[in-house]
Amino acid sequence: EMHREVKPGSGEHPLQYSYCFWYSKRPPGRPADPSAFEKNIRVVATFISVEQFWKAYSHMKRPGDLNGHCDIHLFKQGIKPLWEDEANKDGGKWIVRLRKHFTSRCWENLIMAMVGEQFMVGDEVCGAVVSLRFQEDIISIWNKTANNSQVTTRIRDTLRRVLNLPPTVIMEYKKHNQSIRDKTSF
Amino acid sequence: GTRIIYDRLFLLKCRDSPLSK
Fold this sequence. Notes:
The complex is a heterodimer of chains A (186) and B (21).
Chain A: E1 14-25, E2 41-49, H1 50-58, E3 70-76, E4 92-99, H2 103-115, E5 125-132, E6 136-143, H3 149-163, E7 171-175, H4 176-182
Antiparallel strand pairs in A: 1-2, 1-3, 3-5, 4-6, 4-7, 5-6
Chain B: H1 8-15
């Protein structure tokens, strides 16, 4: 599914990029095992048009309706949602921690902005992740070049705008190298 | 080059199309 060649259908509106939705879940009762991550993640849909995006999205549960420790990832086709992927190795992500009530709406607004090319940072955006956790949920947007402050600033400002976040919500930037050192994402 | 950009309103309108179901 990850490598499937997708084309816009007749009458469909093409996106700038093709994307894959991925899903990963940690089995209940099991501790985190970073080496198992790549085994537990799979592609659930691939799309290249607005209409295919909605089809894929509407067939998935909304984050607010999911249970347990899991993540939904939406990445450009060809980029794996892993720190070690070529596209991600010098990159980082903006992290926003959300009270659970806001997760579904924020995720939807984020992915619409991403596939609609609202971030205006060339091809810097790699993907987005929503992480369902015990007491809060976390939304992240990953970009290629952690050290490009012009890019990361613009992503942050667009994120704040599209998520309609109050000024009190803290956004944190984390380089993937730091996550690798910490052995944890958040 | 030119980028394909869609705003939120347009994406939501497309959601109602039969092609999106």
